[in-house]
Design brief:
Low-confidence stretches: 45-62
Oligomer: single chain
Distance between the termini: 67 Å
CATH superfamily: Stage III sporulation protein AH-like
Helix content: 55-70%
Number of domains: 1
Structural class: mainly alpha
Radius of gyration: 22 Å
Largest sheet: 3 strands, mixed
Shape: elongated
CATH topology: Helix Hairpins
Order of helices and strands: HHHHEEHE
CATH architecture: Orthogonal Bundle
Number of helices: 5
Strand content: 5-15%
């Protein structure tokens, strides 16, 4: 009996798997990578709330100049628009891949059903995030970005300091809109 070479083993594996299934697996892999990248971009802080993407600068002994204060404001404003744009781009790419699976005539019914279910989950998450952001901004916050992943949420708000009542309001809004308990909500000041 002749032993198969590695190349032959790989070839046999892929031929048994089939072209349709390879396309489906590749599609789901792309969606997974897009979601991981998106989540990584949105969660750039440690457990203590320090945001590493903001940078650490030295402060003058006499305080900050007007230019420094304005520069920080621009940085915060840019941060929120950048996160929103990155989130939209990531979600659009994921939805495009999933819709490709749904529209592909050679996709199995199981793959189509799975892709449609994932599209539904993404749409529900997007709706919850938009509702959370709108309601938090209605409570007086100038900017807010909500990122929901499974049973947890990260909420980034533009604030110079959060009061206990504000934290409670944010937790309540997230719970009402997404059913996520306060223990799984991370609030980050920007």
């Amino acid at each position: 009996m002749k032993q198969e070479s590695f190349k032959e083993k790989v070839g046999n594996f892929f031929s048994k798997l089939g072209k349709k299934n390879l396309i489906i697996i590749a599609s789901f892999a792309v969606v997974a990578v897009a979601l991981v990248v998106g989540i990584t971009v949105f969660n750039r802080s440690d457990d203590k709330g320090f945001d590493y993407s903001q940078g650490a600068g030295m402060q003058d002994v006499n305080g900050e100049s007007d230019k420094e204060t304005e520069s920080k404001k621009d940085s915060v404003d840019t941060y929120f628009s950048s996160v929103e744009l990155d989130r939209k781009r990531t979600r659009d790419e994921a939805l495009e891949v999933l819709q490709g699976v749904v529209d592909n005539a050679s996709s199995t019914e199981e793959a189509r059903a799975s892709a449609l279910a994932e599209i539904s989950v993404i749409a529900k998450t997007m709706e919850s995030e938009a509702n959370i952001e709108t309601l938090i901004e209605a409570k007086g916050f100038e900017e807010c970005v909500a990122v929901i992943k499974d049973d947890s949420a990260s909420i980034v708000v533009k604030s110079d300091g959060l009061q206990a009542a504000q934290i409670s309001q944010i937790n309540e809004i997230v719970y009402e809109q997404a059913g996520i308990s306060p223990v799984n909500i991370k609030i980050i000041q920007r």
